[in-house]
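Closing statement on the PRP sub-project.
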Amino acid sequence: MGAWAVSVSWLPLGFAPKVWQGLGRCGPMSMSLRVIVPPHPLVAHWLTVLRDRDTPSPLFCTAMKELGRWLTYEAARDWLPQVSVQIETPLAPCAGQVMDPTAALLVVPVLRAGLGLWAGGQEVLPHARVAHMGLVRDEETALPSTYLDRLPKQIGERVGVMVFDPMLATGGSLASVLELLAERGVTGQRVRVITALAAAPGLQHLAEKFPELTIYTACIDPELDSRQFIVPGLGDAGDRLYGTHADDFLT
Ligand code: PRP
């Protein structure tokens, strides 16, 4: 045990998540993107609160944080490297498992909305180092541009990376982050993505570019509208988290 790339099993044990597998172009022998939708009532509940147009910002923040918490918990289940240890209880020697201290964890929240999702993840993984990325989609073209890149220049080969972004629409923003990670040698099973909601067209886009990727999400929605918004979706997560629907403020 102890290495991100080799010691983890591909499927979580003991429960049956819905797994969507998008085949890449290379045929059945190629790796395929894995999208896991944990069948958990709390995940379904908080997603429904997020989707509801009448949910006010403070409750929207709570729902996003709770989804971040439970999706992180599920994503860590079969992935965090462990080591065996021998300890002494007050009564007797005892074998145990602890997280491998030599396999560090790097978390990448994608601003702005990723901060709301990571707020819950941070309570599950408080020991992680955090590298913020700032991306924004152009409202006309839906293409992402990067305004903040705090990724470490070098990332050790035993480091696992979790990316937090609540919306996966076209997949362009996430692809930008994954490309920067790949430039630093972080690919395959060393990466997990946490997102509240994923659109099928964006997943197909990512399946072609990152066939070894694993994504945890509360739901897969079928389509995008003409503005490249997820339908039925939940609206603009950043605006709903931070109350920035309009440019004016108290005027
Ligand atoms: C949203 C969302 C993702 C991105 C998804 O961010 O939080 O980062 O769009 O879209 P894509 O899959 O088509 O790239 P946005 O650009 O609205 O920025 P914000 O989080 O600051 O609101």
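Residues 18-81+108-241 form a domain with the Rossmann fold fold (CATH 3.40.50.2020). With this model delivered, the sub-project is considered complete and its resources will be redirected to Aim 3.
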